[in-house]
Design goal:
4-stranded antiparallel beta sheet, about 20% helix, alpha+beta, elongated, 4 helices, binds fe (ii) ion, Jelly Rolls
């Protein structure tokens, strides 16, 4: 007596069709948020900031060492620029963007996101910023003051380190679905601001601008935000 294995009652192709439409879905939870804000007509604001930042560097040539590499020419200001009136216009934009975030995120209206520290970085060609996080605050941001072509993208890394361990074969030479990215880069654009969780690892690729003189410098203002009770 022989037993023949019966074939599938329904071909796989038909099963796939049966499970498409309303029967198959993907839910996303615990997202990593990166807010992006474009300051309108930022040319004048940026020109004033460039002037203030170079003046600050003249005043404090050494600067401080954080994620920057002074030996490669990367200059980092002190971290109290939000108290300097020359940065007042930018502070107002940061406050406005923060208020929009608080609305989006459902934060308690008795609290605001307040700037705790603000600093500037000038990266001339050849300089970069190592990957780092900003301990002790909630959100961090960067505003691009001057960003010539090829002056170094900011790169964020998937914060789920367990996920970085997974070994998956993806379709070669095809764009990976966004939900499967392990890194994401933003090219710097003058007048744009990014605000991201302070715990999110990020670094800046080397400035490879071929512009001449100071026009080749990548100039940013960065800041940290914490939730504070409104007065
Ligand atoms: Fe940073």
């Amino acid at each position: 007596m022989t037993h023949e294995t019966p074939g599938p009652a329904v071909p796989d192709r038909e099963l796939t069709a049966e499970l498409s439409g309303d029967t198959f879905r993907v839910d996303q939870y615990f997202p990593t948020l990166i807010f992006s804000v474009k300051v309108p007509d930022s040319a004048l604001l940026n020109a004033r900031l460039v002037e203030a930042i170079y003046a600050q560097r003249e005043h404090d040539r050494t600067g401080i060492r954080k994620s920057n590499f002074p030996e490669l020419g990367g200059w980092h200001s002190h971290v109290r620029l939000h108290r300097d009136s020359r940065f007042g216009d930018l502070v107002r934009y940061v406050d406005a963007a923060s208020d929009m975030m608080c609305g989006e995120l459902g934060y308690h209206r008795s609290y605001r996101l307040r700037i705790g520290t603000m600093w500037s970085i000038i990266n001339p060609p050849g300089s970069l910023n190592r990957a780092h996080i900003h301990p002790g605050c909630l959100w961090s941001g960067v505003y691009y003051v001057q960003a010539p072509g090829n002056s170094g993208s900011i790169e964020f890394t998937d914060p789920r380190t367990q996920n970085l361990m997974s070994s998956v074969a993806y379709i070669p030479n095809a764009r990976r679905p966004r939900m499967c990215w392990r890194k994401v880069q933003y090219k710097p654009v003058a007048g744009r601001m990014l605000i991201f969780p302070s715990w999110l690892y990020h670094g800046v690729n080397p400035n490879r601008s071929r512009a001449r003189g100071k026009a080749a410098d990548r100039i940013i203002v960065s800041f940290n935000l914490s939730q504070k009770k409104r007065k």
